[in-house]
Amino acid sequence: MFDVEKIRRDFPILGKKMNGKSLVYLDSAATSQKPRKVINAISRYYRNYNANTHSGVYKIAEEATEDYIRSKKKVAKFIGASEWEEIIYTRNTTESINLVARTWAEQNIQKGDHILITEMEHHSNVVPWIMLAKRKGAVLDYIKLGDDKASLDEAGVDEQLAKRPKLVSITHCSNVLGTIVDVKAIAEKAHKFGAKVLVDGAQSVPHMGVDVKNLDCDFFVFSGHKMLAPMGIGVLYAKRELLEEMPPFLGGGDMIRTVLQQDFTLNDIPWKFEAGTQHIDGGIALGVAVDYLKKIGMENVREHEKALTLYTLERLSKITGVEVFGLPSQDIDRRGGVVAFDITGVHPHDVATIFDQEGVAIRAGHHCAMPLVVDILKKPALSRMSFYIYNNESDIDKVIEAIAIVKKKFKISDTLKP
Ligand SMILES: Cc1ncc(COP(=O)(O)O)c(C=O)c1O
What we know:
CATH architecture of the largest domain: 3-Layer(aba) Sandwich
CATH superfamily of the largest domain: Type I PLP-dependent aspartate aminotransferase-like (Major domain)
Bound molecules: pyridoxal-5'-phosphate
Number of helices: 15
């Protein structure tokens, strides 16, 4: 049974005040809050077995190494990977994508080759490909949004795949629109055209059950900090055969087996991609975060966020002067817990500032998705609230109250639709 009030008690920060008001945290798409179990795991590590992994033959180094590997096993199982060796720890989604761009793509993408992304990508799934295209003389193509400005244009997918891209790199869930993309269908088609497929799961893994084998993607990336774990730990999953073939990303300790004055031999995967001292406590705490989410159940997480999103869309639909982006409530099965909105005539930074005074933390800006927000939605910025397991209807009620305050301050008189 999903009990949001019980879950809330696990998050110490939710007892805090912001500007004298109880904190209403609605920016989990940027980073999630952390439950006590995760915070304690970090503290436990430093109190009891802080040591560098792999190299130490003493007890606490062995304990740290075992826990770090145990965490990879948990993550592998959580996303349906076959083996823990397919889990590479990075700093975040951004680094995971850059790793692929600098290794697999560097080797496999040449002048004139096509790379395919979509118009709803986060900058971290745009800029590495612009950089690669410039380096190699490759062509970066985009799957366009449909007329609804919320989902991908289906015909556009086929049209772009006909160009036989070497790589299709797509988001699983948009951090602005909340749209959940049918990456399984795209991967199936892309493979028929001989492309490899990278899925950006930064906004999906924290919020829904994911099975990389079922999606049949070649690469899958996400960030620990958006799923209850600390900052600075991210994941790259890739199929074993790809990891075996890929050249290393960074050179240094741990990624080698032997080093001579003029040469070196590589370590096995996953260590081949983890040069230097890693974020050991972060990795261990990510395993604890996975345990926490599994205990709640990812279907329950998804159902809770669906209900909150529906409640939000319903409440917002009764207010004039508020434009809401993304799919309508009928399409809730294709919509995650992200609601971007605009109060007509008020800059989102002013909206977020007034919300802040009311204790409500939301995001305002281009959300690291300028090609979408500025070019397609034609907005310089948007306000965005995003939900997680600890949000409840009362949080949304506070948003509605805060919108009324914004409208009053900016003398936008009409509040309720007739
Ligand atoms: C869809 C998506 N991809 C990638 C990222 C980048 O994540 P990170 O900053 O953790 O690398 C984000 C962050 O908001 C995101 O929402």
